[in-house]
Amino acid sequence: MNKFRVGEFLIESELNNITGSEQSSRVEPKVMQVLLCLVEHAGDVVTKEELIRTVWRDTFVTDDVLTRSISELRKAFKDQSKEPHYIQTIPRSGYRLIAKVEKDPASISNETKVTKADVPKTPSASNVGPLVGPVKGLMKVVFATIGSVLILVAIIVGILLFYVSRHQTTVDAKAIGSIAVLPLVSVDSDPDTDYIADGITDNIIDRLSQLPNLRVISSTAVVHYKDRQIDPRTIGPELSVEALLTGRLVRRSDNLTISLELVNAKDNTHIWGEQYERKLSDLLAVQREIPLDVSEKLRLRLSRESKERLTYVHTDNPEANNLYLKGRYAWEKWTPDGTREAIQFFEEAIKKDPGYALAYAGLADAYVIPTGLGWEGLPPQKEARSRAKEFATKALSLDPQLGEAHAALAQVILYDDWDFSGAEREIKKAIELNPSYARAHLYYSHLLDILGRFDESFVESKK
User: Fold this and answer.
1) What CA dihedral angle connects 433, 434, 440 and 445, to 10 degrees?
2) Which of 52, 91, 182, 370 sees the fewest Cβ atoms within 10 Å?
3) Residue 184 in contact with residue 197, Cβ under 8 Å?
4) Which pLDDT band, with edges at 50, 70 and 90, does 62 fall under?
5) Beta strands in 210-242, from DSSP E residues, in sequence order
6) Residue 90, strand partner residues
7) CA angle 340-341-343, nearest 5°?
8) 1: Cβ–Cβ under 8 A, 6 or more apart, which residues?
9) pTM for the whole thing?
10) pLDDT of 369-418, one tens digit each?
């Protein structure tokens, strides 16, 4: 079936053409093969693995290649992923062709019009010469010899392809040992979206840093790349990483579209890409989903404990989580107004979930830092530090393995008790529990500077 219709579009598979009433598109051969595979299973879900195995049989490709092919088909069909009429995405599974498939009426009509000239003439016995017998025998020998040679060549080529494919798989299967997660770009440049973008970035960094055998660059080291167009081949050597994760966030009311791309930092080749379309209320779930997906594409072998770390949540309350992200975003401004806003957001988060350890750690940070800066409009220094210690202790009582809480307590011990060894012990514990927590490295760098260990302080400030 070289010509057929999918919905309102005429498909000419041999020409790789997709023609509608208003436009005609020529797609790449592989893109057409993807469509043909979907047509063959019209109405049924075709997994990503099956599509890749069918279309790119002897080639190693990532999901991103398939995603781009689907995108090209949707563009040709003027289709949308949110409200599909042709190709439907089945989350974490594959795709399904939902449009009607039928043979083109014009091609059916042409196929039935057969003239005498189209009928091959069969030679009569009177036209066959006396050499037919010997010639036929010779031709049989020739064809048999050619056939044997072709079979032998096919076997040799098959063996070579097998070993090349096996070698390629071995090379590609090597786990990636280092990654930098660049700040997500908020397309809207809106504070109501920026806090989500920053929160997702920090979440990915924090969760991935929990994995053994994976070095994750802290947010402090990557924050200056925010909103800058830089070639990954430049960033890779600067940060000494093998892979980079970049992304964009678009918010339309309560709808979020998160687009991520994982690339090889050495040659900028695509490793993986995915688009997550979620409601704002699903933000908590996608914060667990993304790090797990990224770890799979890094080809890391995860133990049960590692998977639990990746998917662990500090709260099951989406509103509390959202308020916490707003609090952290406000606190990072390092202004009196920002700090007051942060305290309010953290307190509201705790009202939503009284067992939210991260929100208590956020309160501890908000109360301990500004007092040393002499900001007005906040509690007196002694009262503020007392509250900071109370909230840090509360956070640790809820979650003893919370790095943020240990870091906050270290600051209280340092500035309230001037206990240098105690502060260093707590800050080291914080870094051990959360190696990518940027504030912990900043706090430790400052402590080392106070202790006169300037070389160590400089090294720590770069982490």
Assistant:
1) 80
2) 91
3) yes
4) low
5) 215-216
6) 94
7) 65
8) 13, 103
9) 0.60
10) 654 556 667 788 788 888 999 999 999 999 999 999 999 999 999 888 88
